[in-house]
Amino acid sequence: xxNIELEKVASQxxxxxxxxxxxxxxxxxxxxxxxxxxLTVLYFDVMKHNSANFSMEAKNEDVFxxxxxxxxxxxxxxxxxxGYFPVxxxxxxxxxxxxxxxxxxxxKKLPGVRMASGSLGQGLSNALGTAQAKKLxxxxxxxxxxxxxxxxQEGQIWEAAMYAAAxxxxxxxxxxxxxxxxxxxxxxxxxxxxxxxxxxxxxxWEVLHMDGHNMADIRATLSKAKSMTGNGKPIVxxxxxxxxxGVDYMMGSHKWxxxxxxxxxxENALSQLEETLGxx
Length: 280
Known about the structure:
By secondary structure, this protein is an alpha/beta fold. It contains ten helices and seven strands.
């Protein structure tokens, strides 16, 4: 896809996000909106995946794990828009018996989801197991993960980071949503992350930086990351984003981390987001 086409998909994804969370007055719009561009590029331009024939084994397919599972609205939208399940099913988000739970789960057998997430800190460990299994099977595919920056306050992340470098898990590309905000405020005020580039380098990882709202930069950085796989080191991308990107009144604050817009706020948000693929 060209950048302009990807931007149109991302705009529709953002419309899906605000409509989903507003409909049930529940969910996490801030981080979801911030990661819409990245996940659009990943699923529509970068990953080798088969939405028409989903399997848990993912043999000879790239795999994605959403570690910060609370931003499920953006993932569900991208999965639906890329063909994993009907777009109309987005209307069941967070409803009783829905396959689209507030945090992704495997018991509902939703195509595209290979691990339950929401308890922060676990995604990198799961990804390592998959990445090592692929190497043992001679599968050249890549494992991708996404993590919140506040999630890096979890100790399990750094245990996994140490393990990945020690065992040369070099078919893994982790991305950090570096928006500087979490549910309780700015990360610097809650628990400062320090210099993330130096931290990851000290743990033995290759580190790249990326503008999470620039389609050309996202594509170029992911392409570079892919070219660096197979060289004995895991790769992490520090992706700068804005929480609530695309909706002016949600940007610049942590307050929309887990608050749904009301009907009036929804209309305001939708007026700022172009409908490009048709609302569900």
